Each structure stands twice: as structure tokens, then as C-alpha cells.
Inverse folding.
């Protein structure tokens, strides 16, 4: 039985995390080789001049699942969107600091965000399949990127990888909107895998899903991290405890005078450490449910 | 049991009476509209239907009512529709794409553009006619030709096409754009492969309704110089007439028979109009999407 399956039988509860699972994971995470994929240095993101997130520095590793947790408004979604330059789509957003990806500055002047997004995939909070067939949804990426090789094979591989193939193989021409919410989200993951990215960013990928679909997505993440780096934003602490190797806890700093709420990174460590021996009082308060 | 007895009886209170009065008022409005339209239609069909025949559709007008047809007018209307389609739709949709997907609302010239479009929609059609006469017919020296008529009708319906297209484009949820961008699509790929296909039903419906509006326009065409009596088939760069003009001309004739012919031509125009509207409704229902 894999660790994931056991985690589902004995789910981690806030405040009384299952020690055995976390101890095992701690050993593995601490001993696992760490290849730095992203290096974030002193990152500040502002919307219309108001900082939404400030002075964040951390490293993200290959073959790790890294979770960002924290209360609403702590800037974790803003932060994850810095890794594929999705914040560029918001005209008032401004990013300061550096995000290095394989050593290259993603925000250098000559960097094309389109090139960045080809390599760094993203799955959104609400499943957002295109209003096209299941096949066309997955084929969209390879088509626009003019990828070589058989499209049919690529679509099948992506759907198999996203654990959706068996459910849809007989109705690839059906509308993607006819799928259930959980299937739609796995389709979005397949769509993302079809362009063979390096990293998958997931912005609360299971928050709109039922528990069974959530389990399916979490299992999938566990499989995917063998090949990809996964970064996940989640509201759900149990989810972070179940799936993540590393966890970053964000909090909100309120500027009473100007009525600004700014996200800050409080603590970043291995998931077991964050959930059992956090160094910061604020983290402890949050993971034990005393502070929301 | 408590001493208080539950009273759920229906009573006529002031609020309820006001509600019923309002309902009655609405019924009256609806009835007035239907009765007027119905009377008009019945009258037109009763008079005109016997005259809707091969002669009306295939013969040019004539001084003899029995031999008079509306062939040049029908052809003129078809030409104008065709020209309108190739001019108004691309320009209108292009403007809508620009305003929705590219324009930065912070810039003054984009706001000016929007203000202008809103105002253009409210300009009376006769003013467009005067513009057409001064600018197209005389200024550009196009002359009193089909193309000039179509161009002026293009200007007239452009705001309608733009507004309808913008709404259709805006109705495409942002999550679709984000999904495409996140896969490494460029802005143009996102627009051409996701946004536009999803917006096409709305754009098509709006465009057809705009054409339907143009088909009944008379005033600007008269000013641009549509002829009231054309005994030959119109061409794009030649003199022309259109169905509303033909109807107008026949109604103005003293002989009763021409008035009946006018009724017949109105039926033809109505059939074209209703067909277009029905097609628009069908399109809308067929491709309606719920996100």
C-alpha cells in the first residue's frame, strides 16, 4: 500500500496530525536530493501600487510537491501566478524582485511570457475546459505550439497520465462541458500535460470538487511529481499535509493606517516540520486551527 | 393550543390591489401592441397576397399595374445586403475585438472611440443620408450607385454590429482566456481560436439583426439617390433602387392597383425580414452556451 493510500484511510486532522505518516515523510523529504528549480528573491507584487505580497524569498525543488497555505488574502494565489507570469495579464499588476527558473530571470526584459508559459503549466481553481470536444481540449496546446508527432498519441498519453483515459476513451468527440466537475479538472490537467511542461502550478485545484474527485486529483499529483515539479495553492490544510513535501505558510499583515492588506511569507519548511514543529507562533496558530 | 389563532386568509389589501392594477396595465399594453400589429398585417396580407406572384418577383416596374414587378428593387435589396455583410461585419467585429481585447481603457482615445460609437447609434438615419450624399456621392464622386447606398447603410448599422459583438465577446468567460494563455498561446491565438469561436453565435445573431434593421431603411437611400423607377437590373456601381423605395413609390401613385402592389411588396419585405430574424433566433438557440 502506498503512502498516499494510507493517508486516505487515516486522514490527517488539523491539530492532531497523524505522526507516523509525517515521520516517514520527514525522513524521505529530508533525505531526498534537492534540485533547485525556482529561486525567488525578495519578490513584491503590487496591484495599482498597493502591495499584495511583499519580500518573499524561497526555493522550489524538482520532483517535490510544494504547497502554499495561509488565510484568504495572504497573496498565495498572487504568488503562484508569478511563476508563469500570469500576473502580466492584469494591467495594474507590478512585480519587483527576481524569480529565477533554471537560473534564468523570468522577469528579465527580453523574456517572452508566452515562452515561459509553454514550459510552466497551470491548473486553475475552477475547472475551465474550453467549450470544445474532449479531444480538442487536450489537442489545443500541441496544436498552437506546432508540436511534432502524432496528435492522437499525444492526446491519449496526456489523458492516460491524468487518469482520465478510461472514462473518456469512447467519447473523445463529446463536449468537455458534459464531463463532471472532477473529470473536467482532470481534463484541464491532461490539457496541461499535453504540452509537456516542466512544472505544474495548481491554484486550489480541488477547492471546487467533491471528496472523491479531490482524492483522485491528489493521487494524480503524487504520480506526477515523479516527473514534474508541482506547486499547489490550497486553502485546505489537510490537503497540504496529505500531499506536500514542502509547505510555505503565508499570512496577512494589515496596515491599519492605509487599510492595506499585504501577504508575507512566515515560514517555509518541510511539510512535517510546518505541521508538527513550526518555528513561528503564527504558523502554529494556523495549523492547529487557532488562527484563521 | 395557544390563544392566538393562525390567520392565513387572503384579503384585499392596498398592496395587492396595486399589484393587480399594474398587471392589468401590462395586459392592456400588450394587447394594444398586438392588435395594432395584427390589424396592419391582416390588412397588408388581405390586399397584397393575391399580387405576390411570378410577375412581382421577376418583372421590372411598369406603368401598367398588371405587368409591374419589383425585380430591380428585390435585386437591389439583395445586393445591398450582400455588400453590407462584407463591409459592416468585418469592420464591426474588428472594432469590437479591438475594444474588448486590446484597447486600454485608460487611454483617452479609446474612451473617445467608445463615446463616439454610443453616440453614433443614436444619430437619425436621415443624417447618415446627408453624410452619404455630401461625402460619398459628391465628395468621393461615387455617384448615385448601389455601393454608395450600401456604404451609408454600413455606417448606419455599424454601431449595432459593434455593440452586439462586444457583448458576445465579453460573455466569453475570462477563465477561457486564462486557460489558453496558461498553455503558451499568444494573444492572437487565444482570440482567434478560443474567444471568437465561442462568441460567433452572438456575433452572428447581432449581425443578422443589424442587417434586418438596414433592409427596411428608406430615408438614407433616398438621399444617396436611390431611384424610384428603375426598369433595369441594378449593378454595384450603377443606379439602383431597393424594396422600401419601390414600396414608397407605389404607394404614392394615385391608382388603387399600385397600392395593392405596394402591399404585395411589403409582404415580400416582411417575409425576408422574418426569415432573417427567425434564422437569428435559431442560431442563438442552437449555439447558446451555458458556462
Amino acid at each position: 500500500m502506498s503512502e498516499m493510500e494510507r493517508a486516505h484511510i487515516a486522514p490527517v486532522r488539523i491539530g492532531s496530525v497523524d505522526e507516523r505518516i509525517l515521520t516517514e515523510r520527514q525522513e524521505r523529504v529530508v533525505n531526498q536530493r534537492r534540485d533547485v528549480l525556482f529561486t525567488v528573491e525578495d519578490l513584491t507584487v503590487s496591484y495599482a501600487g498597493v502591495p499584495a505580497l511583499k519580500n518573499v524569498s524561497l526555493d522550489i525543488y524538482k520532483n517535490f510537491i510544494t504547497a502554499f497555505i495561509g488565510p484568504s488574502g495572504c497573496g498565495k494565489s498572487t504568488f503562484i501566478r508569478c511563476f508563469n507570469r500570469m500576473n502580466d495579464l492584469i494591467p495594474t499588476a507590478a512585480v519587483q524582485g527576481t524569480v529565477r527558473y533554471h537560473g534564468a530571470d523570468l522577469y528579465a526584459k527580453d523574456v517572452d511570457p508566452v515562452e515561459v508559459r509553454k514550459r510552466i503549466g497551470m491548473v486553475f481553481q475552477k475547472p475551465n475546459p474550453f467549450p470544445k470536444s474532449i479531444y480538442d481540449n487536450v489537442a489545443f496546446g500541441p496544436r498552437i505550439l506546432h508540436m511534432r508527432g502524432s496528435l492522437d498519441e499525444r492526446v491519449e498519453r496526456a489523458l492516460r497520465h491524468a487518469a482520465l483515459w478510461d472514462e473518456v476513451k469512447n467519447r473523445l468527440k463529446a463536449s468537455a462541458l458534459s464531463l463532471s466537475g472532477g473529470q473536467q479538472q482532470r481534463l484541464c490537467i491532461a490539457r496541461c500535460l499535453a504540452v509537456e511542461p516542466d512544472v505544474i502550478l495548481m491554484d486550489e485545484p480541488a477547492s471546487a470538487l467533491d471528496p472523491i474527485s479531490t482524492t483522485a486529483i491528489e493521487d494524480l499529483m503524487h504520480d506526477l511529481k515523479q516527473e514534474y515539479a508541482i506547486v499547489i495553492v490550497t486553502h485546505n490544510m489537510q490537503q497540504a499535509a496529505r500531499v506536500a513535501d514542502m509547505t510555505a505558510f503565508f499570512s496577512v499583515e494589515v496596515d491599519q493606517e492605509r487599510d492595506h492588506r499585504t501577504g508575507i511569507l512566515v515560514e517555509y519548511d518541510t511539510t512535517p516540520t510546518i505541521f508538527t514543529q513550526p518555528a513561528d507562533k503564527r504558523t502554529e496558530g494556523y495549523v492547529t486551527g487557532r488562527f484563521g | 393550543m395557544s390563544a392566538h389563532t393562525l390567520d392565513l386568509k387572503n384579503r384585499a389589501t392596498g398592496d395587492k390591489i396595486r399589484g393587480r392594477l399594474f398587471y392589468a396595465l401590462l395586459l392592456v399594453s400588450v394587447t394594444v401592441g398586438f392588435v395594432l400589429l395584427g390589424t396592419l398585417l391582416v390588412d397588408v396580407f388581405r390586399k397584397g397576397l393575391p399580387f405576390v406572384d411570378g410577375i412581382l418577383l421577376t418583372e421590372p416596374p411598369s406603368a401598367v399595374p398588371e405587368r409591374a414587378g419589383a425585380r430591380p428593387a428585390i435585386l437591389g435589396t439583395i445586393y445591398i445586403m450582400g455588400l453590407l455583410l462584407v463591409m459592416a461585419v468585418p469592420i464591426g467585429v474588428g472594432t469590437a475585438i479591438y475594444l474588448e481585447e486590446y484597447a486600454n481603457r485608460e487611454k483617452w482615445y479609446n474612451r473617445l472611440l467608445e463615446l463616439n460609437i454610443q453616440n453614433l447609434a443614436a444619430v437619425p438615419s436621415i443624417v447618415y443620408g446627408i453624410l452619404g450624399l455630401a461625402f460619398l456621392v459628391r465628395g468621393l464622386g461615387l455617384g448615385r450607385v448601389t455601393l454608395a447606398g450600401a456604404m451609408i447603410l454600413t455606417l448606419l448599422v455599424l454601431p449595432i454590429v459593434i455593440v452586439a459583438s462586444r457583448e458576445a465577446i465579453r460573455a466569453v468567460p475570462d477563465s477561457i482566456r486564462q486557460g489558453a494563455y496558461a498553455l503558451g498561446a499568444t494573444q492572437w491565438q487565444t482570440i482567434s481560436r478560443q474567444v471568437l469561436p465561442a462568441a460567433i453565435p452572438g456575433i452572428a445573431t447581432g449581425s443578422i439583426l443589424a442587417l434586418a434593421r438596414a433592409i427596411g431603411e428608406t430615408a438614407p437611400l433616398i438621399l444617396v439617390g436611390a431611384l424610384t423607377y428603375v426598369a433595369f437590373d441594378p449593378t454595384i456601381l450603377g443606379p439602383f433602387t431597393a424594396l422600401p423605395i419601390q414600396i414608397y413609390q407605389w404607394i404614392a401613385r394615385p391608382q388603387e392597383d399600385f397600392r395593392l402592389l405596394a402591399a404585395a411588396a411589403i409582404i415580400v419585405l416582411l417575409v425576408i425580414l422574418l426569415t432573417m430574424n427567425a434564422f437569428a433566433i435559431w442560431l442563438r438557440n442552437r449555439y447558446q452556451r451555458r458556462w
